């Protein structure tokens, strides 16, 4: 890695056609127009990810008409340079992670000519408005994390070559136009999450076989999940969370052979989760299932648990980590751990999650969940589940976070849970559990917040002692817990403040590297403070 000021002599290399200096530690100030006008034969320039501040006089200096690729990501650039206007043959422009404010100039649509520009990234700036797009040859368009307002740019519908579209984390609003359904025939990834889009999702055209990721989370969308999504057989990620969608569970999604992440949380879905009668083995590839904060009722969907093969016997790769990729970007996910949301900028393909919390599921927890022995996060909290905690949950040897709090579970805590070595976050609070809390290497690290609200529990870490007649739960399996439904049990963290950023980084590193036990104390303290406030005010609100 190079550092220091960029040598002045570089501007004297007049025959240079390619200059790549990205991902170094060059510092100081660099005047872009002077550099471009000096290197008259330059066709490719990449200065991305350095420590210098790139400035411009915004004069119309000479630029090689044959200029093709310009990478200026993370260069502290504050304006959109006028010199770009002369780049009629530019096909790749990266201005991401700069400090560009305000409207993009109207002439920006001339860059690259009508069909020249293929790649454009304006993401992570402070842009408030865009010109009418004229880049009909664009294949990749990234403008996420700006302050862009207004309706969906209908000119995007004319981009017949577009593969990847990311306009998430902006201030777009209004209806999604019907023409959106037309461009899905060639799109591989669409992320329009965290905006203010309203109305229903337009129907997709018959041909959406290339679509791998559709993210519309964090809007104000209404209506039911599109049945036309059943044609998107390559779909890996469907995230419609945090909207106003309604209807019953779209069981037909189980027929999508490649679906790995299904997120429908925080909507208005209701009713029983009924498996489709026409799909024999639904959701075979699913690794992330989040249906939390809805109005689902009835018993937990046993048939779906039976078929979640991607959550069983997953072989962990010791080589380079593999992340869930949608084409164009990695999928990021927010997981709730004891009431605290942690964001993963990237999620490992072998990271398996089930979150059915904050619904009205009733009945018992089926033993068959213990067969999902690669499950890492299981959250069934804030429901109306009854009966004992299944002994078979001790089969979840990879689980790191288990939350069964705020239900009506009864009986003893099975000793099998104390044998799970990876268990780092546990909440069994506010149930009807009784007896002695089992001893175990991991169980001894949990504080009383993990068990409070169960008046019949005793033993460490609770203050109430057990009587000499109270027996500790056995670690051995018992016959009446070994079989159910043919299943045999076998032993087998975004904000701008420094504090928030630190929390996200810590959460990501801890969870993604399987070391979330360090987070347990923080989560417990947070939950304890919340509960104390609720008690003082005598208000008991289900989270």
How is this structure best described in words?
It is found in: Cell membrane. InterPro entries: Leu-rich_rpt, Leu-rich_rpt_typical-subtyp, LRR_dom_sf. The chain has 543 residues and is mainly beta. The chain has a domain of 147 residues: Ribonuclease Inhibitor (Leucine-rich repeat, LRR (right-handed beta-alpha superhelix), Alpha-Beta Horseshoe), CATH 3.80.10. The protein is built from five helices and 38 strands. The strands form seven sheets. A 16-stranded parallel β-sheet has the order 2-5-7-8-10-12-14-16-18-20-22-24-28-30-32-34. A twelve-stranded parallel β-sheet has the order 13-15-17-19-21-23-25-29-31-33-35-36, with no helix packed on it. The C terminus is likely disordered.
Radius of gyration: 27 Å
Q: How does CATH name the architecture of the domain at 1-147?
A: Alpha-Beta Horseshoe
- In spatial order, strands of the major sheet run 2-5-7-8-10-12-14-16-18-20-22-24-28-30-32-34
Low-confidence stretches: 475-543
Beta-strand segment tally: 38
In short:
The chain is mainly beta and 543 residues long. The protein contains 5 helices and 38 strands. It has a domain at 1-147: Alpha-Beta Horseshoe (Leucine-rich repeat, LRR (right-handed beta-alpha superhelix)), CATH 3.80.10.10.
Blueprint of the fold:
Blueprint: E1 3-5, E2 18-20, E3 25-27, E4 29-31, H1 32-38, E5 44-46, E6 53-55, E7 69-71, E8 92-94, E9 101-103, E10 119-121, E11 126-129, E12 140-142, E13 149-150, E14 164-166, E15 171-175, H2 180-183, E16 189-191, E17 196-199, E18 213-215, E19 220-223, E20 237-239, E21 244-247, E22 261-263, E23 268-272, E24 288-290, E25 295-298, H3 302-307, E26 333-337, E27 340-344, E28 353-355, E29 360-364, E30 377-379, E31 384-387, E32 401-403, E33 408-411, E34 425-427, E35 432-436, E36 456-458, E37 483-484, E38 487-488, H4 498-512, H5 517-537
Parallel strand pairs: 1-3, 2-5, 4-6, 5-7, 7-8, 8-10, 9-11, 10-12, 12-14, 13-15, 14-16, 15-17, 16-18, 17-19, 18-20, 19-21, 20-22, 21-23, 22-24, 23-25, 24-28, 25-29, 28-30, 29-31, 30-32, 31-33, 32-34, 33-35, 35-36
Antiparallel strand pairs: 26-27, 37-38
Subcellular location: Cell membrane
Family: Belongs to the RLP family.
InterPro entries: Leu-rich_rpt, Leu-rich_rpt_typical-subtyp, LRR_dom_sf
